Write the structure tokens for this entry.
Amino acid sequence: MNNAELIKITAAMMAGSKGLLAMDESNGTCNKRFAALGIPQTEVARRDWRELIATTPGLGKYISGAILYDETIHQKRKDGTLIISAIINDDIIPGIKVDTGAKAMAGFPGEKITEGLDGLRERLAHYYKVGARFAKWRAVIAIGNGIPSIACIDANANALARYAALCQEAGIVPIVEPEVLMEGNHCLKLCFDVTEKVLKIVFNQLYQQRVMLEGMILKPNMIIPGLQYAEQATVDEVADATVQCLLQSVPAAVGGIAFLSGGQSGEMASAHLNAMHVLHGAKLPWPLTFSFARAIQQPAMSIWGGDENNKHAAQQALYHRAKCDDAARRGEYDAAMEEA
């Protein structure tokens, strides 16, 4: 493990006002989104979509890193060159999703444990050779009747920490993603309390596994009421609660924080990130940016629809959302940008 190199990569991922693009959907998830839009659920269609993203002109102006799926990191474009090469050529750092998915947790109905530690050391060595310089592991924590249990939080936190330690051993920056899900009818305060508890347990495990905090990135949820909760929070309320939760839970040494969108619309995710910087930017001890998937991709995917003739318009939509998120990180996003 080269600490200086890990810190250097982390700093490059957090540089300026750029953020991360999550394009690491599993084949099943990607196919599900394709099906909703009438796009063929094939390897060729997935390749065309990922090539569209990777070859969007100027995307590297706003995106510092792209999280890939195993299929994508080995996938070739129509011209025979690797998709990862197009990403690297745009000065975007390639990363890789390495967990194998959240599975039902034995003995704990409604809760999940993320798997993928078996053989991870060898897989990380391979991914480093093919160009990945950071990785991602996602744990999912649901809020519901009697959940999350401490057993679920502990098990997922331990897996996240063991994954992070293996990443750093391999010279790869770990993105640690403990996602408290938006699904449910819980209030803002309950989301705050659960997220705070989860983050404190995760960082306790990271300490125990001797993970270097300066060479890792946290990918948390924002503090938002459940989707089914009657009283949704204002943009400023979400920003206030999110920053306060992070200040109470995340050590200042962490190399950076990059939010997941968690099902928010692109516009709402940008507005929330923007408000955090407008209201609290001066007191943030770590860089605070975005690591969105659907909130950047969905408008472009809807425009593309699997039709090559729509590629340019789809790329423009993708570029626009990345530009908005870049502005949000500077506290300069405005809803008027959506009309431009």
Summary: The first strand starts at residue 19 and ends at 22. The chain has a mean pLDDT of 96. The radius of gyration is 19 Å.
